[in-house]
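Re-run with default settings, no changes from the original entry. Doing this only to confirm the output is reproducible before filing.
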Amino acid sequence: MAERARVGVVGTGFIGPVHVEALRRIGAEVVGLVGSSPEAARRKGEEISVPAYDSLDDLLGAPGLTSVHITTPNYLHAPMVEQVLAAGKHVVCEKPLAMNVAEGERLLRLAQEAGAVHAVNFNIRFYPLCQQARAMVQSGEIGRLYGIHGSYLQDWLLRESDWNW
């Protein structure tokens, strides 16, 4: 049986707590939360029952921590991902990974050199209609693809309990 993942989340805005909820649903242990300030982390941590850490450095020292999810403002992604990789942890980062191609290529190289599992969260690729479009392209059903443009309607946000920003 695989060891239970012990994950930290950096970011207390909308998407950070969404990651906490998703991690809990898959059975991961959320060991800590870091915010833009220790106070922000404590407030949100109390609200969602996650221990608050004062900084990413502090979180990286948490016993048994296996990975970190970065859900901060875009300009903080690359330096935080680099810090997580340097600490020998796996990392999931919200999009965009980096502010430019060179920065992204550097992070990819660092992750590969560290042997770390690394991913950029892009949940839309798992939507059924995106999966169907991919299958149609791969099977040749629609012929050679030169470009694609699309849109779709969503049925979420119909109820008060639906989550979104």
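The domain at 6-124 is CATH 3.40.50.720 (Rossmann fold). DSSP finds six helices and six strands in the chain.
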